[in-house]
Amino acid sequence: MKHIVVLTGAGMSAESGISTFRDSGGLWEQHSVEDVATPEGFRRNPQLVLDFYNTRRKESFDTKPNKGHIGLAEMEKDFKVSIITQNVDDLHERAGSTDVLHLHGELSKVRSTVDPSLIYTLTADNWEIKLGDKCEKGSQLRPHIVWFGEAVPMIEEAMHTVQKADILVVIGTSLNVYPAAGLLNYVKSGTPIFLIDPNEVKASRNDIYFIKEGASAGVEKLRELLKI
Ligand code: OAD
What we know:
By secondary structure, this protein is α/β, with parallel strands linked by helices. The chain has helices spanning about 10-15, 25-30, 35, 40-45, 45-60, 65-75, 90-95, 155-165, 215-225; strands spanning about 5-10, 80-85, 100, 105-110, 120, 140-145, 165-170, 195, 210. The chain has two domains: about 1-20 and about 65-105 and about 150-228, TPP-binding domain (Rossmann fold, 3-Layer(aba) Sandwich), CATH 3.40.50; about 20-60 and about 110-145, 2-Layer Sandwich (SIR2/SIRT2 'Small Domain'). Helix content is about 30%, strand content about 20%. The chain is globular. 2'-O-acetyl adenosine-5-diphosphoribose binds near residues 11, 26, 197 and 215.
């Protein structure tokens, strides 16, 4: 079975109703990255940061995977599919994908601010964290999200996975954020790369087959192309 590695970004979940970050009207137009997505922002105003991620978490619990997520999950019948996502929602898992690596953390999890190994899973009925919600060691809980300025613990594993790819597919990411965007450079030479995005994306290489579609239509087109 050929091994397809898929790198996804916010555009993957756009058709499920989740905002992207850098498109017009995106999240970073409405919120300051420094305020809501950095350790300094959390120290300055933890309530603001908890509220931001509580809203994102509720939104993610309330939405459903789109045809793109479902199409990728269905591809496991014909391929070994590994998904590396920058997304913090769990829509790939809920669509049925079985091998999903979250580079930037997971909304459904929260962790201790003193012991990062103490991770707790929230549910649709218990989606909020408040100031004063503590881990078993008595420290405030924080979102299990990789903020700007923090290490990306899963990047090594992601690089190894990309190195093993027979085909790389990139969906719905502006490739603005490193180290995730640099993963494209870890493919073996000659590996076909497909990029699905309705808009032009500046990639660091020019040997990419561009499918100019949204995630749902793009995954359908990809599946047709791979049948040949
Ligand atoms: P961006 O918001 O930077 O890029 C979203 C991409 O999705 C753009 O290239 C859009 O053209 C594309 N897009 C829009 N609608 C789409 C659709 N229907 N189908 C497919 N693609 C579509 O989001 P990311 O590249 O994911 O990190 O951003 C990377 C990281 O920056 C995020 O993980 C987040 C953010 O700051 C952290 O918060 C740490």
